Write a sequence for this structure.
């Protein structure tokens, strides 16, 4: 603390700016915008196969099952 008081204010300001620039460089981001990040993220997920459509037969099976239940109920009531 004592050494800071003895220094020239201009020198102190320059050393603080240099320290701030060095601190910022440690947190550099690969992407300059959020759009670039999202685009890279989507491309990586596509490469992993996350966005492929999987065929599921459960909705069709449930529809047929409900249709059979409704048809059976109608036949019992008639």
């Amino acid at each position: 603390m004592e050494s800071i008081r003895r220094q020239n204010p201009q020198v102190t300001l320059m050393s603080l700016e240099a320290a701030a620039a060095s601190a910022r460089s440690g947190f550099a981001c690969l992407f300059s915008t959020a759009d670039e990040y999202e685009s890279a993220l989507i491309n990586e997920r596509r490469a992993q196969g996350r966005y492929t459509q999987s065929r599921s037969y459960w909705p069709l099976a449930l529809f047929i099952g409900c249709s059979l239940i409704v048809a059976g109920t109608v036949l019992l009531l008639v």
